[in-house]
Predict the 3D structure of the following.
Amino acid sequence: MRTLTVFAQLCIILCLSISTSHVNGSDEKPRVGIVGAGISGASAAYFLRELFGDDVEIDIFEKQHVGGRLAPITISGHNYNAGGTIIHPANLYMINFTDILGLTRDTNPEPGRLGIFDGEEIVFSTSDYSALTIAKLMWRYGMDAYNIKTWVQEKILKPLTRLYEFQKEGHAFSTVEDLLNAIDPSFVEFSKKSVKDLFKGEGFSDRFIDEFVTGAMRINYGQTSSIHGLVGAVSMAGVEPGLWNVVGGNHQVPQGLVKKSGAKIVRGKVTAVSLTSEGSPPVYQIDYLPGRSTNEDDMNSKEYDIVIIATPLYNDMSDIKFEDFQTSIKQVPEDFHLTVASFIEGEPNTTYFGVDSVDSLPNAFFTTNESTFFNSFTKQKPVSGETAEKTVYRVFSNKVPNVNELKQLVPEWSDIRVVNWMAYPEYPSSVQLPSFTLHEQMYHINAIELAASAMEMSAIGAKNVALLAYYRYTGQYDKIDEILTKSDGAQKSEL
Ligand SMILES: Cc1cc2nc3c(=O)[nH]c(=O)nc-3n(C[C@H](O)[C@H](O)[C@H](O)COP(=O)(O)OP(=O)(O)OC[C@H]3O[C@@H](n4cnc5c(N)ncnc54)[C@H](O)[C@@H]3O)c2cc1C
């Protein structure tokens, strides 16, 4: 009996030392500093907690509000998603997050019919009757409207399911290019040519590209079909049915994940990250101005074993200096796109669109012509799922519209709200995909935005970075940068 007790005690001591010790031999819990509490930072905190259990201390620095580009806007007592809105039915992390947080998905968030407007007239619109919509699509675009669905399924969505499998198995990649290569090497090829050239090469017609694809790029990214093919192809997944958003607002996902992760929110602006000890393990220092202070005298600092940057390193957005690193840390992405979201409560101007009644007006328009001042005009549904007493339209444009421009769309309004978003990268036709790894234990989740900016992409990047941090901390280097063969995720070799 006594022997058993000693054995049990030994077991407990051994188990405790396995759970808290790491490759560096210290029994201290690793300290992780995350910069940014948008969906990237919040999901990184959640995944780190999953991997480390109780053996990690997580701080998340946030200069504005938890949720970042996922934020609600209130008009006449109803909330609307002001930033990131639509989630794809194949976005498994976002689905999983809503499940674990007990949130409800609204699978009918986009109201009714779609129209394509070339600046002068509606060149195409869907119908309330699906048979008629199919006939109209066939008449204008031949088989392209059908082929695009199959293409997206085969070339984008199917390979993406592989990504979930290998992330579940715990594979992690140092760079965005390696991660994409593991999904499917064609993803990297897509990122090296414009979406126009990609779809032309795949046999789609000029008319389909100039109207449908260009319209989708304008509503999704405020840009044209000259953006690179990967981001373009990923955003074409919106042609699939079953798009959804979160009842009550998408911002609840990052808010819930922060809470669930047990991370501490540090309110304040990070001004600098420096390397205080080059050794193995390195130690980093985060300098920050607490709260809304702009007074340098209030500057505070904390040390961390792992630093995760969960915001674009575009100076106008994050403005973080990197000090005492041997190699310079580049601004990624180099350029960001301004999207102005104007929410207008009022009735639409049907004559502008050349129709005679609101009933015959599509509820969502995208435009195809760069000289048209707006990229899209869409009727909004409150995030509560209720019907608002008055109609609200959202106008996306690339600069702040003037009153006369907006009056062309909605001649009189009872309320108007305008949000200027630094929204997503300015995408070139061919992109140099960056690294997730900025230094030994310092990572950048938003490197993945150069491939495509979307909530699910942030979650995928966050999972990858959490795995990288965990493996490096626990010395499991064999799980990093393995080549996975297409046929079998289990067959692998070192890169
Ligand atoms: C208008 C618009 C429409 C969109 N539509 C969709 C859509 O329909 N579907 C979709 O999937 N995606 C959409 N997106 C994209 C999606 O919203 C983003 O990809 C995603 O929200 C990015 O999340 P993030 O956490 O990486 O970055 P952010 O949400 O930008 O979070 C970064 C956070 O870091 C904080 N921060 C920055 N610098 C510092 C600092 N120095 N110190 C402290 N804190 C700092 C910021 O305040 C912010 O809260 C849209 C985006 C916009 C703007």
In short: DSSP finds 13 helices and 22 strands in the chain. Residues 144-169 form the longest helix (26 residues).
